[in-house]
Amino acid sequence: MSASLLPIDSAAAHRSRDLLAEFPQLIDMPGVPQARMLVEYILGRRLRELDVSGRDAAGAFIDAELSSEVPENLILIDDAHGLQATLLSRLTQVCTYNDRVDETRALAAAVESLAGADESAGAAGDSDTEAAPVLAVTELSEIGGLAELAVGETWAVVNAPKAMNALTEMIAMLQPFVSTIIVIGRSDAMSRGVNKELARGFGRVDVSPGVGKHRMIIGSRPLSSPSLSDFPRRGVISQRGVGELEVRAHGACFAGTKSDKGSELLIDSLLGLLADEAPESVLDLGCGNGWLLTVAVRASGANTGLGVDVSKAAVASARATAKANGVGVDIILGDAADPEEPALAGLGQFDLILLNPPFHQGTAIETETAAALMATAAEHLAPGGQVLTVFNSHLRYRARLETIIGPSEQLARNKKFTVISSRRD
Length: 425
Hints:
This protein is of the alpha/beta class. The chain contains 13 helices and 18 strands. 34% of the residues lie in helices and 24% in strands. The protein has a seven-stranded mixed beta sheet, with helices on both faces. Helix 5 links the parallel strand 2 (93-97) and strand 3. GO terms for molecular function: N-methyltransferase activity; nucleic acid binding; S-adenosylmethionine-dependent methyltransferase activity. Pfam families: MTS.
């Protein structure tokens, strides 16, 4: 694959290199290849060196007036490290939205750092470009209002999510307000499903050349009568001993409207405990679609139920699931793996805490998030209470639970999952 979208000696290539040279500290950071590719694409389109697909536009007619400021507004979705906002705000007005609260904070820190660098560069007189203010929105619904107020052409960049439903919902949200949606990600993760979803809302779908390990799929020419999907999705989960529960899920919510097998094993274990002790309060750290918390509160008759999740889509899904089943719980947005998370301050203690921790970061196995969630559980566990943790059996978390929380015993185990009950010393 090519190392760049642009011919090495083109005007756009020179401008791209000059812009990147202003940020030498970013060169080795994750996310730079995608950010550089987007810079090249926008500059190439503006200078009429690239066509809509990101290919050499030599010999093609491109209207100079229409291309000169393309795009005038850019919506960035799930810019995890803030690098795209940092670089692209030098080229156009940028609005950002991140589903995860930890990534929202990382982006804000990057933008703040950019502002400081701008002031220093401006004082030294060695910066050729000035950054436009970066506007961050906390809810997807705010994007529509901003786009309607925008002057000129608006594009959106969606960093390809793992779940196709997340992309489907994002396209449905953005399509009425933008002229172009660019989905960017690793080439090996960009399936034909991306083209199909873009084709629901756009008359033209192009696949860019690969640059390094990355590629863009570009939807343009918005359809006047698109076939967009509705969210949240609706489903029903049937659990032995509990019956049927309605489930609601937004696109980026883990597991969608389904229950995962680990949570089902955890609920089976919980039901076996309730005859001897019924908790008055339940906390679910990483509540996802809210099914597990809803079942636990309904089955135990607990007076208090609280769910925490780092994902805005999960928080909205859990609230909708609890409401659909007539179960009164509170759901808050927060990073339960962060010991300094402000949303957890003053949270109090709970008789029962549920843990079904993630163990993947992308495609790599990582267990530090699980350890951080265990520490949070230990902090909020009431005397005499217990933490129920389910995990993939090969991870062997029991020793870690013993160390972080206290005495632990195995309640259930099958070919894939293990459930452990942990109590405070």
